[in-house]
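Before a colleague's protein record goes any further, I have to sign it off. Thanks in advance; the entry in question is below:
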Amino acid sequence: MPNVEPPLSVGLANDQVLTSTLSDVVPLGSPPAGGRECSAPLRGDGPGPAAAERQSSDFHPDPHRHGARRGPFASEAREVYGALDLGTNNCRLLLARPSRRGFQVIDAFSRIIRLGEGVSQSGRLSEPAMRRTIDALRVCAQKIERHGVRRAMLVATEACRIASNGAEFLDRVEQNTGLRIEILSREGEARLAVSGCASLIDPMVDYVLVFDIGGGSSELVWLDLTRIAPEARGGPLGRHVVEKAIVAWTSLSVGVVTLAETFGGRFVSEDVFEAMVAHVLELLRPFEETHGFSHRLANGTRHLLGTSGTVTTVAGVYLGLPRYDRNRVDGCWLEADAARDVVYDLLRRSYAERVAEPCIGRDRADLVLAGCAILEALMRMWPSPRLRVADRGLREGILMQLMSEDRVVGAGRRRRRRRGQGRRS
């Protein structure tokens, strides 16, 4: 059995910290404790506590990668699965074992690497960005080896998709780290992000917009829950049920890094912020004109579900957290007006004050307003009374897909019931 570490405190770039424990469980089909409201007052003008900034659908990982074996829950319950998301801004790894409730996180890693820095202007990944990223991926490779990962999906997103040297860089990664990373399609990214936060969707509304504001792109998926049979909407929705509700998706070629590089990120006036919002609205308009969601929403209930660092930041600032706390943020609800209050509160603050927000920090202080502009554009285009916050997404969706394919998720619970029935007969 691989070496299991005590509760983790994984270092991020420039002293930012991501914490995780062995008891972290991402349940399938049930929201985290309570589906609670975010109910803390907004801080005043000073630099108070905050949150952390946080991406072909036919992609199939090599089943022999890391010596994968397929089989029933009984033989694979202790096997470790891995998901790596190499994004434009962050490199994130999640390692987990199947459990009766979903999966149990045993290790995690996240580092800001800014792989896509300057790509929107030059069209190429820079040498410093590639070196930073390879350094982070070496840590990921060590964790994968140490925990004896048997099956993994390692994916790169927008920066590697659009850079002319993206494929060449991934060859270099394999030579330097042994990790074989595949470029994930935009549709694959959108669908996996939805899968990762499916249990946070309110099954009683008619429409849900799931969005992931990334570093180089933003994925949007509209769900029409009226397509789901009423008996299937009595509780939290599973991954396969949610997939049936997908009616449209798009990937915008804008994220926090690309928007900040275009308009600036450190010193953002109200006029510049409005220009950012207007730019994103222009990108959203063809999607709206094609599908006409505004007309549908006029006669239906709905909510937004955000899975990105932008929305976790907004929630953390609203809650007044002295340090980012996933247990407080993941799954909480924000009224739309409260979310907008935080957005404009951050806009009024100076760059130094944003740096002083403990869960924004120096690494993200120049990106957070770009993310807020994308969020504001979404709220203007499709007004919804409430926003649900997800500190989960692509990596969790990958793990769920792998475990579902191996039929190991939840199998232990079904197995016990069958045994019990046998004893009663």
